[in-house]
Amino acid sequence: MAQIPSHVPAASYPSPGAVVQLLKPITWFPPMWAYACGAVASGADIGDRWLPIAIGILLAGPLLCGTSQAVNDWFDRHVDAINEPDRVIPSGRMPGQWGLIVAIAMSALSMAVAAMLGPLVFIAALVGLVLAWAYSAPPFRLKQNGWVGNGVVGISYETLPWITAATAALGHAPSTVVVLVALLYGLGAHGILTLNDFKSIRGDREMGVSSLPVLHGPDNAARIACLVMAGAQLAVTLLLAWQGLWAGGAFVAVVLALQGLSMLRFLRDPQGRAVWYSAVGVGLYVIGMMAAAIALRAPPLVGFVNG
To answer: What is the pTM of this model?
Structure first.
């Protein structure tokens, strides 16, 4: 097992910059975007609910997602010492037990903010927090299997914030079609998480983490990621069309077609182009998410039921 540098005194404190790096602001976007999509898809008057929606976006991103990053980095510190030794914990910039302390403190802060938004949001946040710890921490450590772990993260980052936001905006459960669209985008995010696994194949293999690239090889993992992402969006397209929301369905179909062209390039060199496709393909994916959310606000054509 790789040894973590111990040259930083255990009694020292991490700098504010190190704490921010541990929470990884770049990862906050997906759940924040999903929360915004849920608020839009609810059909509620966002202008009247802007403050709780803004707090909910803060909860989904910097708080809950930031917590999950801190938890993951703490329990992955030995893997990171192999894959990414410059990260704040293996590099020693987050000394001693401070990674764990930050994770616990962020968990408590997240639940305190969630309580401000009512019991439904509190319960949803609690579920998300439990999944975040179960994903990284023993004895569960769901990330040990790429099929299970990536599925949990996809649901936590996309489906849960979307449904939570719609529920908070409406004051009651959203329509069935809103829930189904949120679930589909969460399932499709499994593919996005698989793309993220390409950068850590070596360390995952050495530490016994069964990511999809480790289990099935980079080429097959790339095909699985593309099929999962495309399949979810195709289902969203068909669902919107079935609801009579033709414009939204057509837009998602166009976005999917553009991703298809990008997928062809990605599949020719999965390891070399995983980062590139994460930027291009995921960007198009989230554009489609908001388009679907906007479509769900529109009344269906005559003869269809939106709910």
So the answer is: 0.88
